[in-house]
Amino acid sequence: METVSVNQFRSKMKNFVEQAASAHLPLKVTRRSGGDFIVISAEDWERNQETLYILQNSSLMKQIFESARTHVERSGYTPTDGEINEILGV
Predict the structure, then answer these.
(1) According to the model, what pLDDT value does residue 76 have?
(2) 66/50 Cα distance (integer angstroms)
(3) Three-state SS for 81?
(4) Using an 8 Å Cβ cutoff, are 28 and 2 in contact?
(5) Are 24 and 46 in contact (CB under 8 A)?
(6) Is 52's pLDDT higher than 90?
(7) In the chain, which segments carry CATH 3.40.1620.10?
(8) Are the CB atoms for 45 and 37 separated by under 8 Å?
(9) 78/72 Cα distance (integer angstroms)
(10) Alpha carbon 56 to chain centroid distance?
(11) Is the pLDDT of residue 90 over 90?
(12) Is the pLDDT of residue 26 over 90?
């Protein structure tokens, strides 16, 4: 992650914001008094919030673990050809 001072950020704010939004590259902005902050795109923020929600939800984590286990063991649910065609819109 790139780090810039608040003065650098202020002078090139448009470029830094565009970089965070379009290239999905977070930017750490430091201040002499502390209280540094991070600039990220709204899309990245939302994705991170969704990930945190899932990681903190033990029921969802159990479902994911169980799904991964049955996938590896090839013991999970197998859809019929008709169901696959319906899912794929065939």
Answers:
(1) 85
(2) 20
(3) helix
(4) yes
(5) no
(6) yes
(7) 2-40
(8) no
(9) 13
(10) 15
(11) no
(12) yes
pTM as predicted = 0.67
DSSP for 41-77 reads: -HHHHHHHHHHHHHHH-HHHHHHHHHHHHHHHHT-S-
Nearest-angstrom CA–CA distance, 47 and 40: 11
Q: Is the pLDDT of residue 78 over 90?
A: no
> 65 is written with which tokens?
């673990």
Determine whether 44 is exposed, middle or buried from the number of CB atoms within 10 Å of its CB (0-12, 13-18, 19+). middle
Cα–Cα distance for residue pair 86/24, rounded to 1 Å: 35
Unique residue bearing structure tokens 């197998």: 78
What are 6's two structure tokens? 């608040």
Residue 61 to residue 71: CA distance in whole angstroms: 15
> In angstroms, how far is CA 73 from the centroid of its own chain?
28
- Name the class of domain 2-40: alpha beta
Q: Which two tokens stand for residue 78?
A: 């197998």
